[in-house]
Records
---
Amino acid sequence: MIEATGLSKRYGLKVAVDDLSFEVHPGRVTGFLGPNGSGKSTTMRIMLQMDRADTGRTLFDGQRYADIQYPTQKVGSLLEAHAVHPKVTARNHLRVLAAANRIPETRIDDVFGQVGLTDAADRRTGGFSLGMFQRLGLATALLGDPGTLILDEPMNGLDPEGIHWIRALLKRLAGEGRTVFVSSHLLAEMAETVDDLIVIGRGRLIAQSALDDFIGQARQGVRVRSPRLEELARLIGGLGAETTLGADGSLTVIGAEASAIGDVAAAQSIPLHELTLVSFSLEEAFLDATAGSGEYTSTGDEDAATPTEGER
Amino acid sequence: MNKLIRAEWIKLRSVRSTWLLAIASIVLGMGITVLATASVPDGAPTAERLDLLLTPAPLFVRLFLLALGILAFANEYRYGTIVPTLAAAPIRSELLGAKIVVVGVFGLILGATVTLVSIVAGVTTLSLVGQPVSAFAGEVPRAVAGTVAFYGICAVLGVGAGVLVRQPSIAIGVVMPWALFGEMAIGSFLPDLASYLPFTAGEQLYAVTTEGPPLDPGVGAALFLTWTALVILAGSLLFQRRDVG
């Protein structure tokens, strides 16, 4: 159980995290979502007391991170996958971290097995691929067999097989009763994995809910095609619904039931070529919720609303 | 704290630079001492022979001890390992303390090795050129112990510089020239001030010249330790306050 209360952090004039409060519950995978630059990494560093919060605190089962006697046995974290000396072997990297928290060295081979790095355990990390760094980072997080996991963008740099693997891993860890808190700027890669969502934008909480509720809150619409589309659009507008003409010649209606649209069309003998209920995808719901809250949100091209600029 | 000392010791010995610096220290210390003692002028007084035996090696070998300390901290920032390190050791004063203990003790052991090898090589060279000295005469044992202490303090001072500056290249780029000739340059203008500067004061730990050393060895050691403590304190205050990200 993680309880974050009133977290705030500013760098000079820039507010990175703004009065952010949320809870993360055991036995569930909680996705921490937001566009790049929305403050996810800063929040995670504040939670682990690596960065000083201006206000607020985070409790892990009632304790602040620095007050936990052997913190990595309670809270495992992956904040930066590349955080390894390139001339040191993966095994020695973990030996240091195991010793620092009185974790038995036998755990090292266990976690290498868990993340599929057994063959590379005694190699220097300088030649590792991004995916191998992510696996080593996960091994680091799992080393103390912690009840809570904090993972910052663990899917970055993984190939599809790796992403599939990590999804299963996260679900299994939550299934074992652990608290799993995992950030991502791409909702699509999280949609199949998370149970709960915490969505932030510009450092502020936008939504905190179970995944199903989040989708449920997303707006539903009706897609209509007709040879007399403009006339139909006018009539539907008269129902108080919002209409958007798509590039593909279809009309998306929000705020009117499909039956009502059908009735209107029938009353005026307007032929309908399509009348389809559309629910916006999770990604669209996410973009809708975080619209305008990304640091790098482009103007003009709506398709580019998911920025690719790297988060530092 | 014991657990962190153990972790820092594994860390220190598992990076290659530690051993490269250790080997370089021993080879350089021995080489410089042999060169210096081999060039002793005929009929040099004992004090001059001892000076050539004891002082050239620490002038240069100090750089490696300083580098050892600097890298022990600054490389954590360079490679980002400070993040997992702090995840395992969130109480920063404990982490800094563990690094000081490990690097300091390693510096003393390495310093003792360098000094032993250098003295043996130097005494042998002096015998070969026909101007022998006794390694147990007069102030020599005190100067030998002082050299070892000097090396240990240099390593700890390096840790302080590393935590203060964080970037290894900048820390090394500032500390090394200072330690090698910065104080000497100041000394040529302001000799009175220079004897209170860290390395000049620290050199009194192993100085054997009797021509009126600026400071008593004990006072020099105390000054050198004070400077080191100040650097550590400044680094520690910043380390407590600074964000990692």
Note: The first helix of chain A runs from residue 40 to 47.
---
Amino acid sequence: MPTDTEVQPVVEMRGITIQFPGVLALDAVDFTLRAGEVHTLMGENGAGKSTLIKALTGVYPIDGGTITVAGESRIFRGTADAQTAGISTVYQEINLCTNLSVGENVMLGHEVRTLGRIDWRATHREAERYLETLGVRIDTHSLLGSHSIAVQQLVAISRAMVTDCTVLVLDEPTSSLDRGEVDQLFRVIRDLRDRGVAILFVTHFLDQVYEVSDRITVLRNGKLVGEYAASELSRGDLIAHMIGRALDDLAALSDTSRRQIDRESVPVLRAIGVGRKGVIEPVDLDVFEGEVVGIAGLLGSGRTELVRLVYGADRADSGRFEVDGGPARITTPRNAIDHRIAFSSENRREEGIIGDLTVAENIVLGIQARRGWLRKISHSEQSAIVSEYMTALDVRPADPNRAVRNLSGGNQQKVLLARWLATAPELIILDEPTRGIDVGAKADIQRKVADLSAQGLAVIFISSELEEVLRLAQRVVVMRDRRIIGELTSADIEVDDVIDFIAHQGQESMA
Amino acid sequence: MKRVVKHRLFWPIAALVALVAVNTISRPAFLSVTVQDGQFYGSVIDILRNSAPLMLVALGMTIVISTRGIDLSVGALMAVSGAVSLTIIEASPDPENLGVVLVAIGAGVLTTLFLGAWNGFLVAVLGIQPIIATLVLMLAGRGIALLVTGGFITTINSTPYQFMAQGSVFGLPFAFYVSIAAVAIVALVERRTALGVLTEAVGINPEASRLAGVRSRGIVWGAYAASGVLAGFAGILYSSNIMAADANAAGLYIELDAILAVVLGGTSLAGGKFSLAGTVIGVFTIQTLKSTITFLGVPPAVSPVFMAAVVIVVVLVQSRRVREGFARIGKALSRTPSQTRPDAEVAS
Amino acid sequence: MTSTPIRTEQASGAFAARLRVFVNRRASWIPVFAALAILIAMFVGAQLYFGNFLTPRLVSSLLLDNAYLLILAVGMTFVILTGGIDLSVGSVLAFTGIMCARLLSEGVPTGVVIPIMILSGAGIGLLIAVLVQFFDVQPFIASLAGMFLARGLAFVVSLSSIKVEDPAILWLQSTRFQVGGWYITPTGIIALLVVLAAALVLQFTRFGRTIYAIGGNEQSARLMGLPVVRTKILAYVISGTCAGLAGVVFAAYTGSGYPLNGVGTELDTIAAVVIGGTLLTGGSGYVLGSMIGVFVYGTIKGVISFLGAEQSWTRITIGVLLLIFVVVQRFIITRSRRR
């Protein structure tokens, strides 16, 4: 596998800068891709991975910097431009048409024609040929939708071959694959690499990165951290590069993680063997009164999926729940709410705020939904609740009649928190409550969580910033690759210890 | 001033005022109201009376649209309720009896309540697209009405029944009072209870609402049932006007007028926040438009062309592309750089 | 080079295996077969009940009476396959019909009138397409505007019906090519030719396959580099053109133009297309299926008139049948999504 540094790279991106309203998504990032290599792009949420990819594939225009493909400087005005430059992309959602046959998907737009009329025999033969080169032998007349995601992905890759690509971008290709399918995919990738295709690979499955990559580029907060040879970068260093260090201005909360929790009493919530096929391996989880349980793990480890099962947002197909000692059926959010469980989603915009409603309406929504439509919360009651929480959480601007979508991310998060706290829950699940918000709001929210848990509220807390987790939680549950790999007591450990744990715990048990 | 212009009712009211102004200029008699035998007469009075069926249907349509749905069956439901109640009155030995009339009306409305609930079941429980779910009744409903009347246009003589569309109270048409009552009741139910806000939440963001614990299924179901009830009353009014149950003509195309009224009033077809006041203004605007067209001597059959023009103008105004186009022109004139990525999400 | 082949599961037994292959290849044909089964069942049932239903004369008249609907259904199939809908077709049929009658009665030669009719249909289709594609208007609303426009224009042309006395047009309907008891009219031939042409285009041209791709996943089609915008516009233009052509056929069939024609016909058309196995969500369906759907509609109408029952039963039966099809389609979709 030659990586001759004198060979001109296939793709050179220099000083790429992309600005979104209010956010600098990419800040002068450099990226190099060589022929015949598998190059993995890594970084946490908000790092800029997918923005960089979209710049390369022509989805986003760039505000600064240059892109050179095969020695020629390029400006991509759309996805078609990138395709003509020889860059093919296989997205996570597999952008093919499942209502058409396999062969047709491979050849769509390039069918074999005689006198303007499609020759289906010849077209399917061509499709078979392309699939064969990837070692795939299936009935090309069968519907694409009748095959597994893994096969569909391979079909998408062979389509890239049809359009004669020099660069193949694979965006999170293994998220829905099982072990055997991943092996198969990697065999295909290595084969393509040996044939000289430049492959850009995006994933957050740590083990897979080392299985298949030649080089690794790490981004953090829109900036380039570095480009490394996979063989020279340890796991620990990789994770450290990705996660980095955040400023600690909440020293006063250091006592929180040391608070004693009574774990002899009946847990507020107990999940036993809860799992969902293809999403989360069956896990056990206990949360006690006044306890903050942190869930740590990299993106894609299954943290959100797990708590969604606990809340009933998704339906578990194995295991059972106990709330306050008694059996509980949690299959819909309403079940959870009736058991006084609250959930603040990591996807604020799509699953949290009701954008066109006012701050006040958003805050009382939780209570109102539980009361039912007949018993409307009176205006005075609403004002009292809203002003109480707006003051407690310092929501700005202090206008309860503003549409929530006009607030900054941090204040939107506070409104969401207010909504849930107003329902006086016993257990609140916070999924990335501090993501994408300003430092001040971050501090406010963390302080509030600490106070509430000291008063007896049970909390499940997910954050990619391990400092936060260690600061607030008494106990940290660690996840990797869709399972819980262990538990740590946060009082005795540092961020590095968690990183180490994620990187190495249970290595031996990986088949 | 900017505050006034930005108020979401500004353009609907402005449109109505402009329309009234145009009318008054071309026929000064438009706004005049005369009194005869204790009853008011005049073009404006006609509008108040004739708009009642559309008002009822449009109120129901507003709620349904707010849930991101649509109800195409309202015209057919009008035919059904008219058919049912007239058949009962016709079969009764004493059609003048108020009790009989009330029972007949009750039966008609109950039938359309049931049919509306059926629509709601298809959409909320089975998850069928609202257009198709209500299309079924749109097709089959008139047939059902014809079956009820045995294929004929049933006619009756009944003073109490006739009173609804043709009588007046304190000089104003009874139908107008029905309109007012409907608006008042719907406004009370939607705004005095939490139903309005919850419905809007479901329409704006169904997933977030579900996660917040809102009972979306019941709300959507109820919206279609309410639409059914209101269409039922509209059908009663319509049949009272002609004292006949005409299954083919009752409420013909009224669903389109209703959708237009809702859209004119500022409620978006994409669902979410709705405005009952806007719908009321929209209904009066459409009714006035129809009156204008008739006055101009345009055969009523040709009025759809004007409706088409109105629809096109309204959707263009509401279309993002047109608004962005204007914004771009505005920005070019004031020379500030514009963002070229309107929907960019924060990077991941 | 790895040579581990990837094969799909083999079921035990040769027949089960072949059945599985068939289902995997031809899943989208199943609703069409269902429609065909229903049609055959209706024929058989009617024959058994009435005894004299399945005569060559009656079956031939199925095509004669519904040729216009067949042409409309073909156009509608294109639009629905892309995931859209066209509510204007009934009104366009009326508009082009009355305009045809008016122009002919004023001495404009037939050779000029017919192209004008077809082009005006195409024009309204283009208007709808522009609204949908460039102004993001929902197809329902855009075609509603088209429907209003066409209906109003029909009345602008004439408030009452106008007879068509042009021999060329009347020839289309009155001529019968007979073989034994079976006959076919030029209008029937036109309708069948339209079906054939559409089937060939959808199956053997890149344009046709793009239509299916858009219906399957418009985003994917765009990312795959297919000419999505152009294709969607053409779909609506085709629907409008078919409506114009259907106007000619209908004028020949009724011998006149009447501005109130085609009220509700768009719904009949949509019903026929859906019953014929085309999914409303787009991406799956065949014009042959729509043809079967039209014949189902025609047979129901025929049975109802045989029964001497009121014509209102036709709409009810169609409505119920449509409901059943949609609910079943929904279950199939939910089940396949859970895979």
Note: Chain A touches chain C through 40 residues (CB under 8 Å).
---
Amino acid sequence: MLGDLSTDACDVAIIGAGVSGTAIARRLSSYRLRVVLVERCVDVSFGVSKANSGIIHAGFHHSPSSLKARLEIAGNRAFDALQAELGFPFRRAGIIVAAFSVEEMKVVEHLYAQGVENGAPGIEIVGRERLLALEPALSHDVMGGLFAPSGGIIEPYRFVFALAESAAANGVRLLTGWEVASASRAGDAWRMVSSAGEELAARWVVNAAGLHADTVSALFGAEEFRILPRKGEEFILDKGAAGPPSRVIFPVPTKTSKGVLVIPTVEGTVMLGPTAEEGEDKEDTSTTPETLEKVFHLASRMVPRISKRDIITAFAGLRPTLPGDDFFIDISRKAPCFVQVAGIQSPGLTASPAIAERVKDLLKAAGVALMEKPDWRPDIPRMERTRDHEPWELDQLVAKDPAYAHVVCRCEGVSEAEIVEAIRKGHTTLDGIKYYTRAGMGRCQGGFCTYRIMRLVARETGKPLESVTKHGPGSELVIDTIGRRTGS
Amino acid sequence: MIRRQVDAVVVGGGSAGLAAALQMRAAGLSVAIVERDPFLGGILLQCIHSGFGLREFKEDLTGPEYAERFIRPVLASGIDVFLDATVVDISEEPHGRAVTALSRGLGVVRFSASVVVLAMGCRERNRGNVAIAGTRPAGVLTAGLAQRLVNIEGCIPGRNVVIVGSGDIGLIMARRLTLVGCTVRAVVEIQSYPSGSARNIVQCLNDNSIPLYLGHVVTRIEGRNRVEAVQVAPLEDGNAAPDAGFRIPCDTVLLSVGLIPENELSRAAGVPINDGTAGPWVDADLMTGAPGIFACGNVLHVHDLVDFVTEEARRCADRAVAFLQGEPKRRMLAVSPGANVRYVVPNACAPDRQNVFFLRPLVVKNDAVLEVRMGGREVKTRRFAHVQPSEMIRLALEQGSVPFPDEGTTAVLEVAIR
């Protein structure tokens, strides 16, 4: 379908394989278009999309005048159908905003009015008793709050992987490790060159480059803007941690952030965070020593039984923010055939299906011929997981592949077969395998399974253990072997 | 699904599981060991240094040699060994327990057993558990994983290493990495005293001129793809004092910050866990709160000598055999840790026979006195020139030394250090 990408221009090149880029790629894959998705990291979802709270927001946080609010509501609605098609972990757990004072209740009333105007389904202001019945893990000091039943929790990277797989199954070409270094016009197409010197030509380009959307925009001579990273740190508590909530608990928001949340993740851990720190460095995903106390103070005010003893890991993510904090999704007025998808911070994950729809509409309005593929397949094959079955019901699966009976990651119950599937699908780094399968994501954080996964990668790729990386070149897990083999 | 009927299933084929299985087999029981690795021996196999068996065999053995002393008799004894097999469920059956394992070679295996011995060992505390801030590059790993990579996989994890925590595995790895050509820049310990044994401080650090920073913490890990440095700060009044801190360039950070008994399977089986040890609560028979399920070794509490694990496992096996043979339960009284004692195991005492306890001090102390009291009454005292948390104490109370409490009273045997 796709010929020589350097001379034979594709119809649309999407820059960035995060949630926006993959959602757009999948949406466009339903038309007779030649689409290429390029990603500078070695795997999809390795940027902003891998490090966020995994919330499907309910549509009451943002002003009805914002683009965000409209796309959030539309995006939220799309998730049931998407889950049925793509099978990622997602549950409408419901969102609670907990208020602890009369002043905070006033904010809740404002959120409620905003939600109603936005069209958030089923939201209600609730008093203390009903709130505690909805969420017994809440502090009894709570005064009342907001309940939004349509809010949900999701495994963000699994969602992105599923979108990418669906797009690829429908003909989208994915190029990882492909960083756009330069771009120029060649006839009626864009000609891009990667930092490794590879070429790619495309009639239309979609800039979904997350934190680097400003750099990409500049490369194409499009709008000048600056993406500022707003850091959010999160802590993960073990499965079986004390006093976990069953719904997502928000405090009343401040002007710059939705606040520190207590999130029951869809896979059974508890997440606390995120913080919101303005910064300059787009690579700075470091955590800080002061944050732990701060986050626990804020989180335990809402859910008192959480304990620092249950922390298994911490991480930081960066929100790509634009001045004014709204999304910027439009056809460029400066560069030809260039679509901006910038400033996609919270609720970008929720909005992603609607972002994709909007980009499709923009392209259509710009005259791109969108002819539906009669053979477009919305479904992708379900990934079998050993832990989804009762152990005594595993015979069939094991008959298919005995590796389903080989538990590699004991904390998350991930089998060899699942890890091999991830590797064969191209996820060959430790982090890629972790996001794809959850191996190494549990309480021991890879203490027992790291060497087993390294061996499986080496076996499947035919490369030595020293070449296995955490997240791409430069992050090799070991640097040498003892008594390096010589000659034969 | 394959079904097996045995008297006893031992979960884990490390030092505790091997000794318990052998002891039960010697008493005539049919026994199965389920081990998730492809070999018996557990973590001993990667402990290629010596120092094992001084108490048990009066010999200085390496870990694999110590394991071999049990593996050979196990293989010759008719014990059913299931390798590459992970127990995923223990549930109640009318006459005992059903133990379900997943095996690469056999598929699903379901055992019906009268007794289950938990011998799963422990896991290492990791970076998240001790909340070290900074980036998340390659090159941050637990000491045990590093030991596995070096001693079994034959890999060198890095060149310039900083070790966080002075636990024994960390100290052993400081020496091991020096021997394979790495430079160990520092060992950083939060306490004012080492967590590992005095012997390992001398042999692993002092002999290799590796600096030990007591009362210091690593406040930050730096580096994007690979570790580039750590920030270290002294503790002042219990808090890090970054102004007095310094930076150590390195490409690898090893964590040796403690071990946690691995009891997720136990919890799922309904076994009550003791907060003090993070292992199961056990009575004087080393039986957990779930009848017929016993526990020994590091799954019960973290030991510092494998020889003590072996001793405890045998004792556990003897009691499991007695349980299976229908021996009536003895009268027991509760045992609790008193002043300066972190924990005492087991958590109960049977006065009509000898009782052996393992306990861990909470303090570093010279001229310490160990006191065992029941109510106001002194049962035993023992003097120690020196006690410290990293050195477990073995305490034997002979038959008849503990009085039976009066009927209707709830006397507790308290063990304290003064």
Note: Chain A touches chain B through 60 residues (CB under 8 Å).
---
Amino acid sequence: MKQQLILRIAAKFFIPFILLFALYVQFHGDYGPGGGFQAGVIFAAAFVLYALIWGVDEAKRVVPPSLLQTLAAAGVLIYAGTGVAGILLGGTFLDYGVLRHDPVHGQHLGILLVELGVGITVAAVMTTAFFLFAGRKRP
Amino acid sequence: MVELVDMVLLAFMAVVAVIVVRLRNLFSVVLVSGFFSLLSASMFVVLDAVDVAFTEAAVGAGVATVIMLGTLLLTTSEEKKASGSSLGALLVVLITGAILVYGTLDMPRYGDPDAPIHHHVAPRYTHDSPREIGVPNIVTSVLASYRGYDTLGETTVIFTAGLGLLLLIGSSLRARGKKEDGR
């Protein structure tokens, strides 16, 4: 669809805003509806849109599949690592209260990190899934 | 007023479901299913479950539709004619539907303060969350902190799903690529 001028310009215009909205949903999840899961899907949607207009191969140059696989694992590790950090600081697994001096601040930090982990994994897996399905040739 | 919105949404969902069953063109089926997801997302908004509505709109109406369309490229775009009579299937569907409706008769009314769900851990969460967690969105505090183990499990499930996809259809791609290079 690269030759479609209107689609290309509209996508170019939309993609930064989709990414920005994803970040907003990610980091505003504490205050309004949203969180890592939704943000990850919206973030992936931006790459899907890019792949739809410029083709999957071009999109793979923007986000290499190997990077996506690393990120998918990194997200889970950030989540579990936050839990382990709780143990190392003298609490229990996934107890965020001990991450900071003030338990409420610790909870804030813990939730932020955990949601970040969820967002990274979801975005990476959703983009990978799209690349895998859309990149296959008709048998 | 809310009842009217509920009824209109439910009627729309029923109509859309019938359309999906009647349609034979799979491309239209995927698009209409996306519309069904959007309707259920609106339903969740009416039920005040905005977080769930958000997920349904993003995953059900958005990414799932795109992935189904991607899958459609690999198959035919017309549904095959079913062979034989579908009376048995109709019977199974009717019985299952009847059992489900029978199950709802026992359920507490929507918003009933005496419902069991409001007497387990929910009062503690809604009462102590502002003091213990200090996050204005209680859904997030339950999801990420009180129920942190569950969410860790969910994230692992998504990761595993991605891993499964890579192993199932990612490796065959790579093997085919190698073969083409060798030629």
Note: Chain A touches chain B through 51 residues (CB under 8 Å).
